[in-house]
Design brief:
heterodimer; A: Rossmann fold; Rossmann fold; 4-stranded parallel β-sheet; 15 helices; 51% helix; 11% strand; B: 506 residues; 2 domains; 12 strands; 38% helix; globular
Chain lengths: 267, 506
């Protein structure tokens, strides 16, 4: 299968290794991954802040970038950006009077999957250790991000994949369904509330006994990871794709891991 | 480095409707202040976690929970698409069953209608069922300005009212208060409360019960909201936990209900879906303790003077806004066909599409404007009585003509955030400049109590039919309602169980 990678801007700017890990997982399953050039943001930040007019060229760019590429399905390592494609892009296009763009955006959104959706629903992965060779012998807890949970209804897809990673010590996160406090521009406009929500979440992560908190959205992990780092010690964050990409042959050592700079496309 | 604008976008006119919910301080600034209130944070943490856990438990019990939610969403979308015809069906059924229907385009109109109705009964104190619609229009505050005391009878709303506070949650308005604070409020503000009152939830609920009992039995006018209005029967429904609503809906002579027009459901059967969804989703109960339904006037039983105020206050403007109508529909398949974005709107609302010239000159938005008898429109003036049944086309097209002439009426949405102040209706002055001429008498009709038609007889409104004198009624209810001190279900047991324990974080 030919799979197009939609990297999303947070991953592109802050965690390119999450995109590399996504590619690694899919190639391990024997699929060809392409990266449509010229792709950018999904426009979610604009729409959520009320800038519908400014979102229109962003939507157009996304649709054009993927329209020029030939692929079967697209994938993004983010629940929030994938939800935005279906929930917001057609609306933005219609609000801008571009019905053709709205239809194209809806069609593209219809074959763009969040990573766990693609693995479970399309590629039939049921066991990360046997199907993907995933191996990660660490204590891990999992934060289900809001948009994946509530808009995409991911359910147990991500946590089921994590539980089946080889030698993983999976810990339940108390009050898992609560927001981490990031909320896109919410964290910039309401830093006090946002920070307090992160504190609650981190308290629950510590209470879970895990040394690593993972999830499917790099933005939430950026928010939590930053707050944890400011605390000085305690757990760290890793994206779900990075844990699934780790194997016995190429283990991921979270203690000696640089958390913002990619290591390059090492296979 | 170029500056990056991060502020909120400037609100685009028109701003639809106006509410009572505006905070005085911007949220980030208010939050900064309140973040330091550890007690309040502990209270809210405890209460929200309790209620969320309850909800999670009871929603997980139903195998078809998500299907029920989809069904509820579909019913509401159907209501939105057929709102005008359903509203007229609802009005016709209500009127046929002896209720009086009033139309309020905005908060100010709704408040005025309520105040007029209360004044006509001659009382200066009313009891209230918890209602978000009346919060939205600021009814309590408006009535206070008119010399009418509105007493909240929901326990949490009572705590908020006695504490000179503002509600902090739509379901549990006193969620920010713990039992110590509630005891303080009762001791300071509740007349005749026992000074030995403890912080036990049962004792607090009992104190409120005793206080409210007197109000239920001595007040002849009640004001409620509505959780549902059933178009095909004219039935109104209120769901609640404490029984205060049932008292307000059955004991008084006059019952005034303020209902947002989005509360409609098409048929009585549709209640099946919502009465499963609402209690489980809101308070985490399988079934709410009290579900009250009433359909107009039942002769010799319950309130004999029943009024329903159908409130727009921006709802049709939202319905007319394709982008703002629904902030995403999570149940709709992402890849599926786009839903039809424009429901069939009221003929008046479709006017801009019919007349392109109007769109060119600024796309006026029209609010639903069906005839409102009490405002002195031609038919009401002619009959001197509440308007029922048929309406003259001329009445309905008054606002259309206003738009065509681009006359400054509130039918057009204002271009600035708030509508211009309207002249007061006091003292027989013309309440609204009326350029539409001879049909309008330009003068507020003094409110005359309406006769009530019951079973072929006409009853004088100031003499409630076949009701024993109030003191006898009170004695009767006291016997029935006071089974003894050890009441197994103290009124409002739900709220205290949601309120934090004293002594900080849980």
């Amino acid at each position: 299968m030919k799979i197009a990678l939609f990297a999303t801007c947070i991953v592109d700017a802050m965690y390119p290794r999450v995109a590399l890990a996504t590619v690694r997982i899919l190639e391990r399953l024997g699929h060809e991954v392409i990266f449509p050039p010229g792709q950018g943001c999904c426009s979610q930040m604009h729409v959520n802040s009320g800038y519908l007019d400014d979102a229109l060229p962003v939507v157009r760019n996304h649709v054009r970038a993927f329209a020029d590429a030939r692929f079967d399905v697209a994938v993004a390592p983010s629940g929030s950006c994938v939800a935005s494609l279906g929930h917001q892009q057609p609306m933005v296009a219609r609000a801008g009077g571009d019905e053709a763009l709205a239809r194209e955006a809806a069609e593209l959104a219809g074959r763009t999957y969040e990573l766990s959706q693609l693995l479970v629903d399309v590629l039939g992965v049921t066991d990360a250790a046997t199907d993907l060779g995933s191996w990660f012998p660490h204590t891990v807890t999992y934060h289900p991000s809001c948009h994946g949970t509530r808009l995409l209804r991911l359910g147990d897809r991500q946590s089921d994949l994590l539980r089946t990673v080889g030698d993983i010590d999976y810990r339940e996160l108390p009050d898992a369904a609560e927001c981490c406090g990031f909320g896109g521009t919410f964290s910039l406009k309401n830093p006090d509330v946002s920070g307090a929500m992160a504190e609650e979440k981190i308290g629950n992560i510590v209470a879970s006994g895990a040394s690593i908190c993972t999830g499917g959205d790099a933005a939430c992990l950026l928010h939590l990871g930053g707050a944890m780092r400011k605390r000085g010690s305690g757990p760290t964050t890793l994206h779900l794709a990075e844990i699934l990409a780790a194997t016995r042959e190429h283990p991921l050592d979270p203690t000696s891991y640089d958390h913002s700079i990619p290591e390059g496309a090492r296979r | 480095m170029s500056p990056t604008p991060l502020g909120l976008p400037v609100a685009r006119p028109p701003v639809h409707g106006h509410g009572n919910l505006h905070a005085e301080t911007a949220f980030p600034a208010a939050a900064k202040e309140q973040m330091r209130n550890e007690q309040m944070r502990a209270n809210i943490h405890h209460a929200t976690h309790t209620i969320r856990a309850k909800r999670a438990n009871v929603t997980a019990e139903l195998p078809d929970w998500e299907a029920l939610r989809d069904a509820g969403s579909a019913i509401k979308q159907d209501v939105g698409a057929r709102l005008p015809e359903l509203l007229e069906e609802f009005e016709a059924n209500l009127t046929a069953r002896g209720a009086h229907v009033h139309w309020a385009r905005d908060a100010a109109e709704a408040n005025e209608i309520v105040a007029d109705l209360v004044r006509a009964t001659g009382v200066d104190e009313v009891i209230k069922v918890k209602s978000m619609a009346t919060q939205e229009i600021g009814l309590d505050e408006y009535l206070a300005g008119e010399g009418i005391a509105a007493i909240e009878t929901d326990l949490a709303e009572l705590i908020v009212q006695l504490g000179h506070d503002k509600p902090s949650h739509i379901l549990v308005p006193a969620i920010h208060r713990n039992r110590d604070e509630i005891r303080e409020i009762f001791l300071n503000e509740m007349p005749g409360v026992d000074a030995s009152l403890s912080t036990e939830p049962a004792e607090l609920a009992d104190a409120a019960r005793t206080h409210l009992r007197e109000k239920f039995l001595s007040t002849s006018v009640a004001i409620s909201g509505a959780n549902f209005g059933v178009a095909d029967t004219g039935t109104l429904a209120v769901v609640e936990s404490e029984g205060n609503g049932r008292m307000c809906l059955t004991l008084p002579d006059t019952l005034i209900t303020v209902m947002g027009i989005e509360k409609l459901v098409p048929t009585f059967d549709d209640l099946e879906v919502f009465l499963q969804l609402l209690p489980r989703s809101s308070t985490g109960e399988r079934m709410n303790p009290y579900t009250s339904m009433w359909t107009g006037v039942t002769p010799d039983d319950g309130p004999q003077d029943v009024h329903v105020i159908l409130l727009d206050n921006g709802r049709t403007a939202v319905l007319d806004d394709p982008a703002g109508r629904s902030a995403g529909n999570p149940s709709a398949p992402l890849s599926g066909q786009a839903r039809p974005l424009r429901p069939a709107l009221h003929p008046l609302l479709r006017l801009p599409q019919r007349l392109p010239r109007l769109r060119a000159c600024g796309r006026p938005r029209l609010r639903l404007d069906l005839s409102r008898s009490h405002r002195g429109d031609p038919l009401a003036a002619a009959h001197g009585h509440h308007l029922r049944g048929e309406r003259l086309p001329a009445v309905r097209f008054l606002p259309v003509r206003r738009v065509l002439r681009r006359l400054p009426r509130q039918d057009q949405h204002p271009r600035h955030p708030r509508p211009p102040p309207r002249p007061r209706r006091r003292g027989g002055e013309s309440h609204d400049p009326q350029p539409d001429g001879p049909a309008h008498e330009g003068r507020v009709r003094p409110h005359v109590p309406r006769p009530v038609h019951v079973g072929g007889r006409t009853l004088a409104p100031d003499r409630p039919p076949r009701r024993p004198p109030r003191h006898r009624l009170a004695a009767r209810h006291r016997r029935r309602l006071d089974p003894g001190a050890g009441h197994p279900h103290p009124t409002g047991a739900v709220l205290p169980s949601l309120v934090g324990h004293p002594g900080g974080r849980q």
